[in-house]
Write a structure and sequence with these properties.
174 residues, alpha+beta, two-stranded antiparallel ribbon, 4 helices, 4 strands, 31% helix, elongated
Length: 174
């Protein structure tokens, strides 16, 4: 049964919100896969927040976090638009993304939740400054952050989320 054309604007607004929310889920899960995961705290601290809002802290430290629609606000579409920002609320997010120099932490020799990269990273170095063999707490590639942003991961996850979001919206699915 087809919907009346008078519902088109509302259906488009609802579909846009669903697509944005689903794209946020896909992107956050893509960031978990691409980024570091020593304790699981960084992976659980991604938040989709409305522009200008602050994220919370880590949700868990028991492995890699898996995001779903519960983790994305269901803000209604406004005439001025609703935009989500995806941010990490961990206290060391800037270090994990190599935006500031790394500070060595021992982590009590615990087993990381993701495989470690090879090479020694000296205190004060960035993630990409690995030399030879030695202690290393890095669990993501040296360029994981820019590679995800411009290397295709972000675009792929955005497209997947939009397709899934619009596909589940009223009047847009099968």
């Amino acid at each position: 049964m087809a919907r009346d054309i008078k519902f088109l604007v509302k259906d488009l607004q609802d579909a846009t919100v669903k697509a944005a929310r689903q794209a946020s889920v896909e992107i956050m899960n893509g960031l978990v896969a691409a980024g570091p995961g020593y304790t699981g705290e960084f992976s659980s601290a991604w938040y989709a927040v409305e522009k200008g809002q602050s994220p919370g802290g880590p949700r868990s430290s028991d492995g890699l976090y898996r995001y779903d629609l519960r983790n994305v606000p269901s803000t209604r579409f406004k005439s001025s638009g609703t935009w989500y920002e995806i941010v990490n609320g961990s206290s060391y997010a800037a270090e994990a993304m190599d935006l500031v120099p790394y500070t060595y932490e021992d982590f009590d020799k615990q087993q990381p939740v993701k495989p470690q990269t090879t090479g020694y990273r000296r205190p004060g170095a960035t993630r990409g400054d690995l030399r030879g063999r030695g202690p290393n707490t890095s669990t993501a590639d040296a360029d994981w952050w820019p590679a995800y942003n411009v290397g295709g991961g972000l675009s792929k996850d955005l497209a997947t989320g939009v397709r899934r979001g619009f596909g589940s919206a009223r009047g847009f699915g099968k």
